[in-house]
Amino acid sequence: MKKTAATMLGALTAAVIVGSLMVDAGPARASFPGHNGRIVFAQCSPGYCQLFTVRPDGSGPRQLTATTSGYDYWPAYSARGGRIVYDHEDTGGEADIYSISAKGGAPRQITNTPTVAEFGPSLSPDGKRIAYYAYDGNDYEIYTIPAKGGVPTRITDNSVSDYHPVFSPNGKKIAYDSYDGTNSQIYTVSASGGTPHLLTSGKYVYYPSWSPDGRRIAYSASDANLRSQIYTIAASGGVPTQITYNTSGSYDPAYSPNGRRIAYRGYDSSNNAQIYTISAAGGVPTQITAGTSYNGDPDWQPNFSPAVTKPSPKPGRSVRDRTPTIAAAVRDGQQYLGKKNISLKLDGRKVTTFSYDRSTGRLSFTPKNNLSFGTHRVRIGAGDEFGLTTSRSWSFEVVRSQRARGRA
């Protein structure tokens, strides 16, 4: 028994028409703390789904995967925002877990199980394990597996179907939804297994998403009119807070890394599935995608400042070469940098003739003219597309041969 992307898309269309709820239309989300980065989502057309990213204001869309036969969906970021795990399902309905750099590139297959389809991957905060759900011959259960692949560990074992697992930000718990054939609720369980804890008591409760501080969980649930809306609740349970009030329904919540907003899937005036964001306290939503394709499964990237490492000549070193190559590794863990994102100053003067290889992150500059003997100061700065910046300064000394104390 498999629930495929093709059947989910068909059922999703029907769900929009009748205003009902979907069990398997979206993933669970772990929102790890950080600055707000890009939002990844699945964009689907008949016969295929591809992953895209976009800035939270809807600008700068980028295509991440390019399959035209099969389905890439349910993406989830790592805690540092540098990798994404997702499901790839072929046209025959075989689904496996893959990972890809958040910058793009060649995907890497994690599972390869022709007789078992794995769905809804979620990375642990240390990046060492992936939680997912799979059919065991009777119903769906929660499993974890090493992030590089290996032998799975079963987390739940019961007579109902468990879906959409997501690690807590501290990695100690997994939240998931459980469907007994008539209704579903959110549970939490130890990341190593054990006795589940019932968290909710609503109607058709799905798609848990932890807040980055681990204190609250967002989810989708039916309102009084049997429309799916976004709610939040304390991670220990209690009275939920309704966040959305959309007549066409709201699904697939994902907290922003700063905890202030929630991304979700909603529907525009033409019943096209779009990605929206809204204040975590509720309010007016902002639509960030457009078009007639199905846009869903959002997750929000934790973003961090670039880093400048491996400076050369090494700080404090003396060199004999009067035209030493000044170099450093300038990298951003979440996106590629370009030369336009980087600045270099030598002795307070701006240098524009340096080279930068974005694939390796190496900056290098060799002066055309001899440097004077004495101390020279280098400053490298870098900034990402969201304005997060970093800089590193150091000095080295050019000396005559007999005084040289080392090389870069």
Describe the structure.
The protein is mainly β and 408 residues long. The protein folds into two domains: 5-303, 6 Propeller (Neuraminidase), CATH 2.120.10; 307-403, Sandwich (Immunoglobulin-like), CATH 2.60.40. It is 3% helix and 47% strand. The protein has one helix and 34 strands. Strands 2, 3, 4, 5, 6, 7, 8 and 25 form an eight-stranded mixed β-sheet that branches. It has a five-stranded mixed β-sheet with strand order 1-17-18-19-20, with no helix packed on it. Strands 27-34-33-29-30 form a five-stranded mixed β-sheet, with no helix packed on it. The chain is elongated and about 85 Å long. The termini are far apart.
Q: How many beta-strand runs?
A: 34
Report, as a whole number of angstroms, the end-to-end distance.
61 Å
Number of domains: 2
What proportion of the residues form beta strands (DSSP E)?
A: over 45%
The assigned structural class equals mainly beta
Helicity range of the residues?
A: under 10%
Low-confidence stretches: 1-24
> How many H/I helical runs?
1
What's the main sheet like? 8 strands, mixed
Average pLDDT confidence is: 91
